[in-house]
Amino acid sequence: MRKFTVDAMLGKLAIWLRLTGHDTRYSTEMHDEELLQVSLEEDRILFTSDAELYERAQNLNLESLLLRGSVDEGVARVFAEYDILPKIDPTTSRCSKCNGNLITLKDVDKDRVKGLVFEQTFDYYEEFWLCEDCQSVFFQGGHWKNIEVYMKRISDLIGRMT
Ligand SMILES: [Zn+2]
Fold this sequence. Notes:
Layout: E1 3-6, H1 11-19, E2 24-26, H2 32-41, E3 44-48, H3 51-59, E4 64-66, H4 71-81, E5 102-106, H5 119-124, E6 127-131, E7 137-138, H6 143-161
Parallel strand pairs: 1-2, 1-3, 3-4
Antiparallel strand pairs: 5-6, 6-7
Helix pairs in contact: 4-6
The structure holds zinc ion.
């Protein structure tokens, strides 16, 4: 699976790439130099909204995409260009916060998130996803609907592009 680097201006894109299971480096602290270096060393495609950075990537023969316009258009363009389905399957997602691996926890394994989420949440949901790196816990709560609505929007945008 392809790996990506995303510049500091495109944080939302980074989240959606991680949620769709793509190893995506993103940090507001990475400077241009570091973005280029990490992308080259780790064989990552660079997404940027900065024309100058894009040009530097071109000169280094680094695969890169210059994204202009709205965030949503950018997400749709990347998904279309790299054949990413606008569908989130949490069992294959990476941590949206840190890009870490998520472990699926259900049945007896659920106990591992006890104390990390509210008691009602723990009792109510049957499946949780725990980030091995930052210990964030994810579950298909009320916000899940928003994720689906957003993916539908991206799907519509892609439909209009092709
Ligand atoms: Zn994490």
